[in-house]
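This is your field. Have a critical look at both lines of this record:
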Amino acid sequence: MCQSWIIEEAIRYRGKVFGSREIDEISEVIAAHRERSQWFISRELCRRWGWTQPNGVLEDMIGRGLLLRLEAQGLIKLPPRGKIPPYHLSAHKKPTNVELDQAPIEGNLLEFRPIELLQVRRTPLQKLYNSLIEQYHSLGYTRPVGEHLEYLAFSRSWVVACLGWCSAPRPIGCRDRYLGWTQEQRIKNLYQVVNHTRFLILPWVRVPHLASHLLGLMARRILRDWQESYHHEVVWLETFVDPERGFLGTCYKAANWIYLGQTTGRGKNDQTRRPNRSLKDFWGYPLKRNVREVLYG
């Protein structure tokens, strides 16, 4: 049983605060379902606490993250882990290489328009997207957690770019100051914010202004696609740009994104309050003129 009386300070996780009462409740759920899986316990807590996405799906990943954090700190004891789910194994499996013709694609943007964006998640083209990101993006491919969509950009029959989007990170100081929302408003409405996690113009594609053109196409496209896939709208796009890798965010500026400042250099699970990674430039883009009004609601 959790000895919650030893907790001197409340535990903060993803904008929520957990004190002795909440940890006692978690311990009671674990004790009542000792023979069940960690997955079941996580979902049971989500049901009790009303942790659901706007489309009604339980926020199971948040629940499991909390349980693992509390166990790591010695505050709870979870049942032994069962078999590793297939999706967890696939998240760590390297994508299979898919080879493309690498003949140079060069010229004026007008020569290659119209550019077609295909949403490829859960389609036969998913393997091609995964492979290209793994081979040619500086960060490689990792399976996104939570809501996400992935795109290939085509000019005629040629693939020219890959774009990945997923649910936004939690607190980002420069973004939250710009939007001016309260912590409660952020927790309530963060699901309407989408992060641009991967952007790859293939190395053999040299078409000036292609990147900013693709960002413009995405700004007109993603709202509809997110609504169709997840049954809620998105109103704000954002991304991190790493200047230490030589990226300056030029295409975002050309596409009328807003530079908001730099990150603190601390990861989402940081406990030291000291920088442990490179500082990133942070850019945002409102999909609606009244974005603050929507996100304050």
The chain is about 35% helix and 20% strand.
